[in-house]
Design goal:
The protein folds into two domains: 33 residues, no CATH class; 155 residues, Nucleotidyltransferase, domain 5 (2-Layer Sandwich). Helix content is 35%, strand content 16%. It has a five-stranded mixed sheet, sandwiched between helices. Strand 2 and strand 3 form a beta hairpin. The longest helix is centred in the C-terminal third of the chain and has 16 residues. The two termini are 31 Å apart.
Length: 229
């Protein structure tokens, strides 16, 4: 059954799109209600960014224009944290705005400058070092470090940063973390950081990129759109 195969993450719109038989969204929603099937409830997502620093920042080149015509035109990055009984695990990601695929990621038990660098370097390796990509982030100190700026400049990327305190400027990255927290993190209680690492890796590489229908790309799978480019 589609609902359970996706671990209760799908509501009526995604189930409708995945059905092999034709059925309307309202009919699917009605049947789900009769069977008491509900998608995992969304919870409020709190954004935390260390922007109280005097380091140099990039201007907001992206300026909330999330439109693209192909991959490797615009990327966005962000950092979040996951609770375990051992302490926090920090996750940094890089997302391609065209396919919405997570193309770079890194995890660490410390919120260090290298974390955002490692995620960006993974994206560069996977995409064979494209030039001229707009790489957007918030103003967090990790993104203003000399190491991160050196990667941007050395690889001829175009740095872009959100306005101070404006999470909507980096809405795509925030949306992914919201989805991750709702569909995975809030449904688990991790004993160790290693357990959380394995779970997040499997979600990103085994499910989100390869199986999950994404509403922003007409209910297609991110990697399906990647390979079509």
């Amino acid at each position: 059954m589609i609902y359970f195969r996706h671990k209760k993450r799908y509501g009526a719109p995604r189930i409708t799109r995945e059905l092999t038989l034709k059925a309307s969204h309202t009919r699917v929603a009605r049947r789900m209600k009769m069977m008491n099937l509900k998608a995992i409830a969304r919870k409020k997502y709190r954004v935390t960014t260390d922007s109280e620093h005097t380091k140099p920042i990039y201007s907001n080149t992206l300026n909330r224009d999330f439109s693209t015509t192909s991959t490797n035109q615009k990327w966005c990055g962000d950092i979040t944290y996951i609770a375990t009984r051992e302490g926090w695990l920090y996750l940094s990601t890089v997302i391609d705005l065209h396919s919405r695929a997570v193309i770079g990621w890194a995890m660490s038990d410390r919120l260090k400058k290298q974390l955002s660098c490692d995620a960006l370097l993974m994206a560069l390796f996977k995409r064979k070092f494209p030039k001229g990509v707009i790489v957007h982030s918030d103003r967090g100190s990790q993104y203003c470090s000399n190491q991160y700026r050196n990667i941007i400049e050395k690889n001829k990327l175009i740095g872009s940063m959100s306005r101070k305190g404006n999470c909507w400027d980096n809405a795509i990255a925030e949306s992914f973390f919201h989805t991750l927290k709702v569909e995975l993190i809030h449904e688990n209680r991790y004993a160790t950081r290693e357990e959380a690492r394995r779970s997040i890796f499997q979600y990103i590489e085994g499910y989100y990129n390869k199986k999950r229908l994404h509403s922003a790309i007409d209910y297609r799978v991110p990697f399906e759109l990647e390979y079509a480019c």
